[in-house]
């Protein structure tokens, strides 16, 4: 039995996986804020998931955690997870001591990348394009996460693509995130909708000109992200995930249409067959929690070796 925890800004999504990586149980608890609350609630989520799967903690093989911030996967330390109130926390060793099993800590986008790779039954190379509040990517090759030399591979949200654009929170001008990040779309749109990006798409379908402009900007940014990922890493598949992906086919179809339009002006881009390489993450699945559990398996096997 393997557990996976996806620690987000407001909730912890925990799953228990069987030997065949099927989800046997799933629970959610509030995340809390600050190191004490995050540790306490993560431990509670793990224990509740084990109980829901009707196994004892002693029967667990491993635990994996996906969490935002800068993660030292080797040491199990997360840094600068500001939305969780974490400066530096040795989350892996702390939970491992409490649970008595190996605990692997992974960046949340990397964890979601593993989950998407598994759920879609992919092989070879894949980039996971996370369109959430911000924009980031994760890379998986033959089932293993690739993090880069210093763990920042996939930070494509902070690649400037519009010299006349807005100043990003990182200090640069016209970053990809300012076009395709759900948080930026919500800020530009205004209002108090629970799902502002969905409201923008609905309003655009109804003919609202401002909504059409925002929707097209987001779609163009997402298409640019796909192009960047393929041109830089030549991945076979780009999987779009994150909160914005819940728009579903309405997003995917427009991204593919944008890529088709780009290909019509460039034989080179046309030769890359970009639209055929883009997929959506399976809807309704706890992708990051499943990926975290799979990352935990890797940690357990490494210790066993």
Automatic annotation (TrEMBL):
Instruction: Report the transmembrane regions from the record.
Output: none
User: Which top-level group of life is the source organism from?
Assistant: Bacteria
State the organism of origin: Gryllotalpicola kribbensis
Q: What family is reported?
A: Belongs to the ROK (NagC/XylR) family.
From the Swiss-Prot or TrEMBL record, give the protein name. ROK family protein
Matches recorded under InterPro entries: ATPase_NBD (IPR043129), ROK (IPR000600)
């Amino acid at each position: 039995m393997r557990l996976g925890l996806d620690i987000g800004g407001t909730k912890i999504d925990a799953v228990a996986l069987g030997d065949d990586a099927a989800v046997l149980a799933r629970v959610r608890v509030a995340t809390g804020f600050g190191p004490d609350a995050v540790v306490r609630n993560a431990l509670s989520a793990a224990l509740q998931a084990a109980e829901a799967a009707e196994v004892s903690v002693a029967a667990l093989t491993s635990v994996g955690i996906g969490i935002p911030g800068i993660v030292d996967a080797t040491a199990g330390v997360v840094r600068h997870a500001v939305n969780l109130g974490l400066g530096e926390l040795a989350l892996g060793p702390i939970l491992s001591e409490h649970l008595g099993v190996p605990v692997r800590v992974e960046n949340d986008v990397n964890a979601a990348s593993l989950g998407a790779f598994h759920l879609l039954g992919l092989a070879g190379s894949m980039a996971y394009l996370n369109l959430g509040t911000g924009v980031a990517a994760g890379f998986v090759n033959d089932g293993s996460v690739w993090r880069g030399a210093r763990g920042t591979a996939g930070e494509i949200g902070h690649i400037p693509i519009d010299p006349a654009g807005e100043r990003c929170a990182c200090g640069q001008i016209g970053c990809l995130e300012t076009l395709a990040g759900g948080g930026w779309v919500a800020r530009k749109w205004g209002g108090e909708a629970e799902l502002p990006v969905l409201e923008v798409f609905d309003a655009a379908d109804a003919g609202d000109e401002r909504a059409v402009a925002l929707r097209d900007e987001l779609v163009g940014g997402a298409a640019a992200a796909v192009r960047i990922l393929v041109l830089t890493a030549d991945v076979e598949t780009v999987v779009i995930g994150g909160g914005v992906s819940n728009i579903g086919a309405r997003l995917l179809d427009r991204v593919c249409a944008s890529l088709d339009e780009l290909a019509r002006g460039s034989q080179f881009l046309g030769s890359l067959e970009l639209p055929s390489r883009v997929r959506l993450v399976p809807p309704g699945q706890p992708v990051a929690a499943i990926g975290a559990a799979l990352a935990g398996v890797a940690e357990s096997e490494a210790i066993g070796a």
